[in-house]
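User: Second chain of the day. Same drill as before.
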Amino acid sequence: MSLALPAFEPLSQALLALVIAAMLLDLVLGDPAWLPHPVVGIGRVIARLERAWNHWPAADRRRHGRWLTVLVVGGTWSITWSLLAALAWASPWLAVVTELGLLATTLAAKGLAQAARAVAEPLTRGDMAAARQALAMIVGRDTATLDESELARGAVETVAENTVDGITAPLFWALLGGAPLALAYKATNTLDSMVGYRNPRFEDFGRASARLDDAVNWLPARLTVLSLWLAAWLIPGSRLAGALATTRREAPRHPSPNAGWPEAMVANLMGVRLGGLNHYAGRPSPRATLGTPQETLTAGHIERAITYMHGAWLVFLLLATPLVLLREWLI
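Assistant: Same format as last time:
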């Protein structure tokens, strides 16, 4: 049965139609600044609990970190499910519209493309200062001295990695459990982005959150690589020869068990090199390189990364459709 509405069973045609509608809604509206966003509320809860709980000895911080993960993820699922169940009792159509809106908030295709183009457009004009400022809005690395190639690398890596976090993984969990499970995924992702760091402050407290985020992204990241590769067959200039094998070899070099997969695939499809040396607060942070550099990264590669991003989610949904039809035929 559905996690939200009786009509929306996991991998059902009704839920697939709702997820596709949410994807289209995100492409049209994105995340309007005037509209309250669930992730903002989730972030505030995380910040408050972190301030209250993250000041104990290491063992206690690990325990409180586990409780943080359970409460935030479980609470997000429970509140969303309860809201939709209450609305379904009052008005099924109101519940459908609400679930559609909630699903759209878990997706970030339009916002991701806009953020990347905010780097590409000034970079194309030669306005390095504006491009550096725009990149600083979406990455944690130092951007003040980056040249065109490094600015383009930062934007391309952001698009590649967030194709999973911001689009295909939410789609994956939405197809399995509607808005409650999609928002629980976003809660997991938000936890990792806020407390899942390997530093003295969060090494113990954020361990559970980081491990859960790795687990829930494991399969979506690899399905996204397949989707990127299949989409590339229809994108002119894609370097398909050996892309799958090279990605499979290079992806484990990345410090994240998941982020390296889409980054490596995009690098190989475009014939560029991603990864390398970043600086954070002035401190060098070397990363393994991904891809064979046959081209120098430029602003134009940012737009190509956006094209691959759109191709990936489209193929992802196209692959899901026959699975849904087969499931319902068998049942």
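Residues 13-330 form one domain.

User: Great, on to the next one.
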